[in-house]
Amino acid sequence: MNEIQDLSASTAATLAPPAEPEFAAPPIERPRAAIAEWTVTILLLLFGTTTLVQAYVIPTGSMEDTLLIGDHLLVDKLAYAPPGAVSKYLLPYQNPKHGDIIVFRFPLDIAQTYVKRLIGAPGDRIRIINQQVYRNGIKLNEPYVVHKNSYTDFFRDNFPGDPNVSLTASGRDMLQNHVVNGEVVVPPGRYFAMGDNRDNSYDSRYWGFVRRENIIGKPLVIYWSYDASTESLAGSSLRTLVYHFGDLAEHFFTKTRWRRTLMLIHGDYSNN
């Protein structure tokens, strides 16, 4: 299963769910942030190239219901880029912040591209108790999170703890060297990321931290959303491609999610 597919590279980025079976009050929008967001959106749509903005498609449900399988995104690659001497006054450069949806190179294989929500920044202490995330001892308000499994998984839902699945080397290192008093402490230059579909997301709980230099950007807008399966979006065989194009030809108008067209993608401001 793929997490997020880079259309410009025509290469699928693979995401598998965990080995186990498988947005409160509206956030306060900062006026300057909203104006800057729309300004950048218009500029990128008019003048964007792969240097500024890149197209991706979501082939899995790990970010449901925020991002759906078949959502086609434009990702702002300038958002977290180091500011230049002049450009820092023209564009709203920023560091990744709590609640941002980030696109990044998968730590275990940087040829793959993942999309998750940023939960922990450097220095933060992260803990999960009965599916509820606590950051620095404060319970987070996460209206975007969904739980779609009926069973309780001790490690997934009460983290960190004794893993009941096989973790990657980086995941084991996180548990062995970055847990203090029952909390994961995010080291400098690293971030802790999780999917909104909390029960079905292969994320930092299993493979550890995201490096700052591996963060590509953040999703800006859904320019098209099409109701397709993971198999048709992630598959690379000729048979899969033929099936997908045939499905598009037959069902383009009925399976396009028109209400999601040009939908801006917002992070969460309620927990900052």
Polypeptide structure, described:
The protein has 272 residues and is an alpha+beta fold. The protein has one domain (5-120, 190-264): Umud Fragment, subunit A (Ribbon). 21% of the residues lie in helices and 25% in strands. It has helices at residues 31-47, 154-157, 169-177, 204-207, 230-234, 238-255; strands at 5-6, 53-57, 71-76, 101-106, 109-120, 125-129, 132-135, 138-139, 179-180, 183-185, 190-194, 210-211, 215-225, 263-264. The strands form two sheets. Strands 1, 2, 3, 4, 5, 11, 12, 13 and 14 form a nine-stranded antiparallel sheet that branches. A five-stranded antiparallel sheet has the order 8-7-6-10-9. Strand 6 and strand 7 form a beta hairpin. The longest helix has 18 residues, at 238-255. The protein is globular and about 55 Å long.
Outline the secondary-structure elements.
Elements: E1 5-6, H1 31-47, E2 53-57, E3 71-76, E4 101-106, E5 109-120, E6 125-129, E7 132-135, E8 138-139, H2 154-157, H3 169-177, E9 179-180, E10 183-185, E11 190-194, H4 204-207, E12 210-211, E13 215-225, H5 230-234, H6 238-255, E14 263-264
Antiparallel strand pairs: 1-2, 2-3, 3-13, 4-5, 4-13, 5-11, 6-7, 6-10, 7-8, 9-10, 11-12, 13-14
CATH superfamily: Umud Fragment, subunit A
SSE order, as H and E? EHEEEEEEEHHEEEHEEHHE
Q: So how many helices?
A: 6
Q: Can you tell me the residue ranges where pLDDT is under 50 for at least 5 consecutive residues?
A: 8-38
The structural domain count equals 1
Task: Please describe the biggest sheet, giving its number of strands, its sense, and whether it closes into a barrel.
Answer: 9 strands, antiparallel
Q: Shape from CA axes?
A: globular
Mean of the pLDDT scores? 82
CATH architecture verdict:
Ribbon
Structural class: alpha+beta
Estimated radius of gyration: 19 Å
CA distance, first residue to last residue = 32 Å
Report helical residue fraction.
10-25%
CATH hierarchy, class: Mainly Beta
Measured by DSSP, the beta-strand proportion falls in 15-25%
